[in-house]
Amino acid sequence: xxxxxxxxxxxxxxxxxxxxxxxxxxxxxxxxxxxxxxxxxxxxxxxxxxxxxxxxxxxxxxxxxxxxxxxxxxxxxxxxxxxxxxxxxxxxxxxxxxxxxxxxxxxxxxxxxxxxxxxxxxxxxxxxxxxxxxxxxxxxxxxxxxxxxxxxxxxxxxxxxxxx
Length: 164
Prior knowledge:
Blueprint: E1 3-6, H1 12-31, H2 33-43, H3 46-54, E2 58-64, E3 69-77, E4 84-92, H4 101-109, E5 118-123, H5 128-136, E6 140-147, E7 153-161
Parallel strand pairs: 4-5
Antiparallel strand pairs: 1-2, 2-3, 3-4, 5-7, 6-7
Helix pairs in contact: 1-2
């Protein structure tokens, strides 16, 4: 059984490995293994994750069973939209997907920002499983964007009204 808890610095190496494995399983067919390796080296390195962990207006969680991590999630408030929390990452290892771990992490994350009125996220338009997951959580498509600066990855923008 996995429980959701706040991540700590000692988790970051495991989170980096978890993200690399999950990204390769999800995106190799879309972007190619080399591109996925480039992205994960840039976005999911321990120093990049440490920066997220240290950000004040954010929450970083992991799903832990005491032996291994099955998932991670990260939300930060948008600076230009003070009432909007941005779900930047929510990943579950493929072997643990469809067991409620992503839902449990999301349930924790959506309660961490009581002043937020909305939660927003970006998702790869060809990732039907993720889009379906987020729609079941109450998200709706509100637009399109490009993620990753020079990497230029297309994304759908989804948003959910938070009702507390």
